[in-house]
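Thread: Newbie trying to understand structure tokens

Hi all, I'm a second-year student working on a class project, and my supervisor (Dr. K.) asked me to get a predicted structure for one chain before our next meeting. I've only ever worked with sequences, so writing a 3D structure as a token string is new to me. If someone could post the tokens and maybe explain what I'm looking at, I'd be very grateful. Here's the chain:
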Amino acid sequence: MPIGSEFLAKAGRHVNGPQANPPGPAAASSPGWPVSALIRHFVSLKSPGILPTKQRLPFATTPLFRNLSAMSPIRKAIFPVAGLGTRFLPATKAVPKEMLTVVDRPLIQHVVDEAREAGIEHFIFVTGRNKGVIEDHFDRQLELEFTLNERGKHADLELLNRELPGAGTTSFTRQQTPLGLGHAVWCARELVGREPFALLLPDVLVQAPRGCLRQMIDAYRELGERANVVAVEEVPPDRTHMYGVVGVGERRGKAFSITGMVEKPPRGSAPSNLIITGRYILQPEIFEILGTQERGAGGEIQITDAMMRLALNLPFYGFKFEGRTFDCGSKIGFLAANVAYALAREDIRAEFRAELEKLLGEK
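---
Reply by user tm_fold:
Sure, no problem. This is what the structure looks like when written as tokens:
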């Protein structure tokens, strides 16, 4: 149900909206191999970007030509990747923080994999300057493919082809000024259109047998029309002042109605010990609110403030997912994620555990 009137004063503030941002330019590169050889290699492979006919989306399912039902499916996901990553300097001086690896996969790849498992069809990246390598990561690298093929490394080549997004399923737009998460989401408004969408923060990894977003979408289908869903998890009460915290209302299956949201409440005043984690399912009305949202904490346009205003008219639910989160925006969380994901890998688990025990035994 909508959040109560006690939030009306804060939720009702309006100022002029942020300036529009044009899509970011696509990166370009020039292969060093002979063009004829690259063309022969390219046409010899089955392009992973071309779907079999039975898997293609019918023309009438595009946003311009279909009538959206009240319970629209979640087809699109936004990934805000414009942050500077200053907490990881000097590593992020020339390398986007989203491209730092957890074991052998960039952070952003882990999060995209979670979205793909959940059935997301369109991956929307809100980037910034010096982030072109993210776009390159989700594109073909013909020189590399040619070399792998020539050297007989077909397993590696198959891995690259299998994980490449299909043609036309990724979009990139620019957040030209760092005005916060709410502003980054607003920058994707034209790409999302008038349908509900998922929002995944690449700083947060969720290790779970079933992806966090997949769990959320399953719950979303049971919550009825116009629902908004945020992932939540428990923290010790003495740490609630560090996060956005939700109030707990009536339970709805595995979810519960949210009675309030407070961003970093003073110690001892939090409505619960459930904090908002970096996964959201939001209705498109959030874009209209973000367009008039005044700057909040830190001089930025905060997504939590916009959600509080949206909750006056549309229901918000919390979903306590199964799995363990890692805050990879912090050094400790990033290192812990590397350890946890390495120990979950059958091919390196035993040897890595032995190395860890050796290191711990030396201390």
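A couple of things are worth pointing out once you decode it. The chain has a mean pLDDT of 82. The two ends are 53 Å apart (CA to CA). Feel free to ask follow-ups in this thread.
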